[in-house]
Amino acid sequence: MCVFAAGLGSCKGEDRSGEQPFAPTVRTLDAYAEGDSVRLTGEIVESPNSALRGRGFIYGNDTLRVQVVSEDTTDLFQAVADSLEAGSYYAHAFATNGVGTSYGDTLQFTIK
Q1: Predicted local distance difference test score (pLDDT) of residue 21
Q2: In angstroms, what CA-CA distances link 32 with 4, 15, 42, 92?
Q3: Element of type H or E holding 92
């Protein structure tokens, strides 16, 4: 609220100094496999009081673990992993802010 009287002005903004920043909350939404590729979709649910620094996915199987960073800058984000061999894989979304990194639930998908 701003108050102006007799040429003097004063604005008092909302005091947020007592609010605690938290790591982001992220969800893994979909892993759509087609041919030798998978399109991964995730969502940033919230990132309280800390700007996002990155988002993407970790996918793999028993012998493979790969991180792919999404180029999207919106809360709904995607990435594509291609040239995958036939077999069962897992994937989960991640998001990082100034406090830490959080991970979504793990989804399983199959490349035929």
Answers
A1: 87
A2: 58, 44, 12, 13
A3: strand 87-97
Residue with tokens 């199987």: 61
Residues 57, 40: contact at Cβ < 8 Å?
yes
CA distance 31 to 38: 6
Calpha distance 105→110 (Å, rounded): 17
- Three-class SS state of 107: strand
**Distance from C-alpha of 71 to C-alpha of 50, rounded to nearest angstrom:** 19
Angle at 84 between CA 106 and CA 41, to 5 degrees: 40
Q: Exposed/middle/buried for 101, CB within 10 Å: 0-12, 13-18, 19+?
A: middle
Tell me how crowded residue 91 is: count the other CB atoms within 10 A of its CB: 25
Successive 10-residue mean pLDDT values, the chain, 112 residues = 53 63 96 98 94 96 96 96 97 96 98 96
* Cα 99–chain centre separation: 13
Distance from C-alpha of 107 to C-alpha of 53, rounded to nearest angstrom: 23
